Input
Amino acid sequence: DAGITQSPRHKVTETGTPVTLRCHQTENHRYMYWYRQDPGHGLRLIHYSYGVKDTDKGEVSDGYSVSRSKTEDFLLTLESATSSQTSVYFCAISDRQGGDNYGYTFGSGTRLTVV
Amino acid sequence: DAKTTQPTSMDCAEGRAANLPCNHSTISGNEYVYWYRQIHSQGPQYIIHGLKNNETNEMASLIITEDRKSSTLILPHATLRDTAVYYCIVRSSYGNNRLAFGKGNQVVVIP
Output
């Protein structure tokens, strides 16, 4: 979607290696979110941020860390990737916690494969 | 946040109105009903949301019952591009109110 980009779009990595996914926005939205999507589980929240340097855990945060040093970037790091972290990762932004008139805007996703 | 119940899947005829139901019997007074959809391999897309009044935008209409325990998303003239998983989500506009997605309703528009 315009205003939010995720990188890389695809990545294959080996078990035990660190991986960082990037979410970049140009909307100056305060809130940013990382979700993962797996078959049979739908979308699950990993971490979210409500401002620069302000982050909190979601429902599946184990094995993940995040950082937000500036408004436009929200990084998701897998310190030591495992095969269970093979998934599609989506970033989302919103203007306020209740969502702006258009709700959340999602990125196009990053498909991560851990071998 | 209140839980929602949707059909697992449904088919709709191309060119006809598609009526997607959602039950949210435990909804509380400050919780909104949101609808998103996800077309295969893409990120979810916001459709519409409402509190108690019916809402309409360029994509769809949202009909909320008077007791707010259920709602219906209406796609007025379904097209093949409307084939997607549709998520009905109930969420408060206050406090810690992240979006929680269920498994959604797989809607297939049939020619």
